[in-house]
Amino acid sequence: MNTDPASKDKPTAQRAAPPTVRPSRRMAFAEQELRLISALVLLLGLGLFLALPFVLSIGSVVFLPLVTAILLTILLSPLADKLSSIGLPNILASLGSLLFFLAIVIAALALVLQPAVNMIDSLPEMARQLGDRFAQLRDEFDWLAAANRQLAMLMGQSSNREVVLASPSVLEQLAFATPSVLIETLLTFLMAFFMIEARVRLRSRLLHDRIHKGASLKAAHVLREVQDRVAAYILTVGWINAGVGVIVALGAWMMGVEAPVMWGGLAAILNFLPYIGPLIMFALLALFGIGTAETAVLGLIPAAAYIGLHTVESNIVTPSILGARFTMNPVLILIALSYFSWIWGVFGALLSVPILLTLTAFFDHVGKPNLVGFIFGEPLFQTNLMALGMDEDPAE
User: What is the DSSP string of 139-157?
Assistant: First the structure.
């Protein structure tokens, strides 16, 4: 009979060895599987990002009103909730919030369009004076044009005539576009009304139709965070832009610029477009000033004053009011601006920042993809690989 202690412990050690190997092997398999799934998700996301503009552009009659209605629902749902809390029926509260927004939009457009219509009579004189200013500048830089002609002769280039086909006039384009714009506007407000009216049922269905309680709580947090962040951002930026419009109107009135209310309203509206809107406002003020002032230097004073105001507002006032919660990467803002402008034009540019803010709030809860880490071998989404590898009982 063998009583050696080493011989008794040997089978036990052999039986205990596999559980220490299996979890690491399972974790390696789980890591490879997660890496493969992450690659497939990344490829699908990239394909969707590249194909989505063509789908949204072709179906803009459907998708543009839908996206706008969703953003209006997120923006106006808190107002509808407050109206419902004071005793109004849900349908009246939804209609009241939508009519309130529509009244603000009509008032803002009236501030800009009515003075602009009154200035139409002065456009020929303004265009003539602007042409004279640019003719003077062209004469001053005539030596540059002569040098360009000499360089073209040395390189053997000949001046070829170009045939330009006549395009439809602005009035013809407006006449063709008006029915489509009216239909899309009507669809937008109808969908927004029904979405706002159904917000209570939507919340209840989203919260109570989940199988797990944790999923219901997470859905509630995501819904509340997206709604609060987008609504707070748009309202805060709206108040800031209204202040900018008032200051621009007062400054234009003090400088003797014609139609100061129009310039104030135009500054407030264009300030909703990051980076691009202030540049457009500066160009319009510069052209108007050069076309109406006695000298080009005097004409550029309103544009220079606006650039100074915008510098203070964008670098000091807006960051201090919004804070770090609404801080977004400027590169992402420009990408979203160019992306949605490519798809939907001016309306896409106006919707780009709210859409980006909605997606940012959503991914803050769901989880942001780890794109940089994925290049260096990490998973696309942060996952506990040890939990994936150790989910089985080692004693089995």
Answer: HHTHHHHHHHHHHHHHTT-
**349, 271 in Cβ contact below 8 A?**
no
- pTM across the whole model: 0.68
Q: pLDDT (tens digit, 9 = 90+) per residue, 14-63?
A: 454 455 546 677 766 666 666 677 677 777 877 877 887 788 888 788 88
In angstroms, rounded to a whole number, what is the distance separating the alpha carbons of residues 365 and 369? 12
Q: Which residues of 190-215 are buried (b: 16+ CB within 10 A; e: fewer)?
A: ebbbebbbebeeebeeeeeeeeeeee
User: CA angle, 57 as apex, 69 and 106 as ends, to 5°?
Assistant: 40
Q: What's the mean per-residue pLDDT of the chain?
A: 74
Tell me the Ramachandran region of residue 31: left when phi exceeds 0, alpha when psi lies from -120 to 50, beta otherwise.
alpha
Is 349 in contact with 340 (CB distance < 8 Å)?
yes
Q: What whole-number distance in Å separates Cα of residue 366 and Cα of residue 92?
A: 34
Q: How many CB atoms within 10 Å of residue 39?
A: 12
Structure tokens at 274: 């990051």
DSSP string, 159-222: ------PPPPPHHHHHHHHHHHHHHHHHHHHHHHHHHHHTHHHHHHHHHHS-SSHHHHHHHHHH
State the amino acid at position 39 in one-letter form: A
- Binned at pLDDT 50, 70 and 90, residue 250 comes out as very high
Structural domain spans, the chain: 61-118+181-212, 228-368
DSSP per position, 289-346: HHHHSSSHHHHTHHHHHHHHHHHHIIIIIHHHHH-GGG---HHHHHHHHHHHHHHHHH
**376, two tokens:** 């260096």
The one-character DSSP state at 275 is T
Can you read off the two tokens belonging to residue 208? 């109570």
Q: 340 with 352: CB under 8 angstroms?
A: yes
Distance (Å, rounded) from C-alpha 231 to C-alpha 19? 54
Sign of CA dihedral 21, 23, 24, 28: positive
Q: What are the CA-CA distances from residue 252 to residues 143, 285, 288 (Å)?
A: 37, 10, 12
Would you state the structure tokens that stand for residue 394, as one six-digit string?
């080692």
Q: Are 195 and 189 in contact (CB under 8 A)?
A: no
Question: How buried is 78 (Cβ within 10 angstroms: 0-12 exposed, 13-18 middle, 19+ buried)?
Answer: middle
